[in-house]
Amino acid sequence: MSIRKQGVTRRTLLGSAAAGAALTVLPGLIRPAAAADEFKIGLFAALSGPASLFGPTQKASAELAAEEINKAGGILGRQIRLIPTDAGGPPAESTKSAIRLMLEEKVDMFVGSHDSATREALVATIKGKVPYIYTPTYEGGECAFNTYVLADTPEQQIRPSVAYMMKDRGAKSVYLIGDDYVWPRKCNEHARAYIAENGGKVVAEEYVPFGAPNKFEEIVTRIKSAKPDMVLITLVGADNVNFNRTFAGFGLDKDIGRLSLLLEENTLHGIGADATSNLFSSLSYFENAPGEANTKFKAAYFAKFGDKAPQLGLIGADCYGGIYCAHALATKAGGTDAKKCMAASEGLTFPTAAGQVTMRGRHVDKTMYLAACKGTEFDIIKTFADVKSGDECKT
Amino acid sequence: MDPLIVTQAINVLYGVSTLAVLALGLAVIFGLLGVLNIAHGEFVMIGAYCAYVTQTGGLPYLAAVPLTLAVCAIIGVAVEWIMIRPLYRRPFDTLVATWGLSLLLRKIAEAIFGLGYRSVNIPLPGTVKFIGTEYPIYRLLLIAISIVVVAALIVWYGRSRTGSRIRAMVSNPELAQAQGISVRWLAAGTFVTGTCLAGLGGVMIAPLVPVQPFMGLDYVLRAFFVLIVGGLGSVAGLLSGATVIGGVDSVISAATNAANGYFAVLVLAILFLWLRPRGIVARS
């Protein structure tokens, strides 16, 4: 190198590195001082990926709850600030976001509405340092420290609905089909027990790869030749739609009943009116669920978001309950200290979109609805009041 | 014959023929023009949404065909002129450019229709007795249409003057240009044909799958597998790729389960990329 052209010297390198470091820290310094007074809730929702169709209603329901709580004074006098974060991608990405939210944003609580694989990764990442409220449906058994589960459990979703299908509709043999990950596999373990206690038998248990472009002609043909009385479906999203459309396309919907464990309004629209006969869904919330609480919730929801309001369903409405749970928990515990929250969670009551619930063993007993599908609408045919969660976690 | 085996055999035929039609658009663009069109799946998505729009508009299902051809042709012409033409000899640049295009098309679909699933009712519902077993009428129709479309394309490509001009352009563009063949128009026309074929594939499968902005990703993946295994630049390559990929997937899914079927497809794709990257029918 000639003396004239010095290129990058150590001085310029150190100088630019220091400037770069200062620039990355700058946004944190510039943030207004009022931020220290906010109650930050990291909201894990499906903002991208295959489940992203739920993202808009998850955010909207959570925003509605936050707005209502803020009007009434916020949490412990602090205004809620929601930080919507993507949990619709691979679990590894969500864990990175969780770390960033804990270290940089210093969130006070997490509320998560996403699949179980992501939940397991987040639980391992958060390690109970921040209270974590998990809201949609799941397979039971989550007792991690400082984790509070509002999600429907197999005891709530599967037990009463399978009993109905077998006793009231005379189903004796069941075919199990699901996506290949923790939720369907654990649910099917529970389902086998409930099927046995109703005197039925499982004809076959099959899984399709989760996230692959699956087609179901071969599986439907197998089901056709196995001739079960009903199919218990733990497929999610596009797989759920594809399977049900193929099933009806082959004409199997006439004789074989189907019970799907994650069938909400959006998926039902995808399945379409010509494929929903003899199809049932069991969830703790439907948009047309009866009760004053839901009427009030919907009125507030449509008042705030108007005609462009995202389609309501369990995945979405669950976030409303999640934010209210955060409010109740922090208020009763007087803060977000882990041990105080754990103790405060026992007997905690708070509103959800479907109504008031009480937390016991860090899970929630709830009213479950069994709906038959009529065209692209749900018709609630049975209500199981106050179904115990079946999970008792220590506090 | 055991109805189960007959039905599974028809399923295999259905899997292979729909795969061939869905890969056809990409085979034309990738095989003949050497353009890596990652947005191929989005043109399938556009076709599916055209079918949805036609049906909600109360029109007969076949009206979706001219609508799809119009939309895909317009977008194809614009894309070829703005994005592809400057990048013909630069495969990685076309890969990045068409990736951006696919993001754009998905976002436009999301803006117009939203992220929710739409369903298109099957135009010919019900099943019919076929070789001793009940099989959905619409799927049988798709098998027939796929065979006709691929056969028609083979005949046209082999016999027509435009077909021979395209073959000339593909083997030696400079010489073709010197012979008076307008390579620019021919390439543009080939690209638009590829996008239109993808759109038609979308119209065909729309009643069978959830119609949503991300649906295209599944098809571009499978189409690339077909072309990797089968080989680029010839219809024989497309057919052999579709037969191998579709056949292996279907047969193994029917015999064991779907996970093994998909696994076998991935293993095949890896083996071909590694040991015989030019595919079964390598272009000479």
Describe this protein with a few key phrases:
heterodimer; A: 395 residues; alpha/beta; Rossmann fold; 2 domains; nine-stranded mixed sheet; five-stranded parallel sheet; 12 helices; 42% helix; globular; B: 284 residues; mainly alpha; two-stranded antiparallel sheet; 2 strands; 3% strand
Number of strands of chain A: 14
List the domain count of chain B as a whole number.
1
Distance between the termini of chain A: 69 Å
> What proportion of the residues of chain B form beta strands (DSSP E)?
under 5%
Q: Please list the strands of the largest sheet of chain B in the order they lie side by side.
A: 1-2
Describe the structure in your own words.
The complex is a heterodimer of chains A (395) and B (284). By secondary structure, chain A is of the alpha/beta class. Chain A is 42% helix and 22% strand. In chain A, strand 9, helix 9 (265-271) and strand 10 (279-283) form a beta-alpha-beta unit. Chain A starts with 9 loop residues before the first helix and ends in an 8-residue tail after the last strand. In chain B, helix 1 packs antiparallel against helix 10. Chain B has helices at residues 3-33, 40-56, 64-84, 91-113, 137-159, 161-171, 173-178, 183-205, 216-230, 235-255, 258-275; strands spanning 127-130, 133-136. Chain B is mainly alpha-helical and 284 residues long. In chain B, strands 1-2 form a two-stranded antiparallel ribbon. Chain B is globular. Chain B has eleven helices and two strands. Chain A binds chain B through residues 50, 52-53, 55-56, 180, 206-209, 212-219, 221-222, 224-225, 238, 241-242, 245-246, 249-251, 266-267, 269-275, 311, 376, and chain B through 3-4, 7-8, 11, 14-15, 114-122, 125-127, 134-136, 138-139, 207-212, 214-215, 217-219, 221-222, 250, 253-254, 257-259, 261-263.
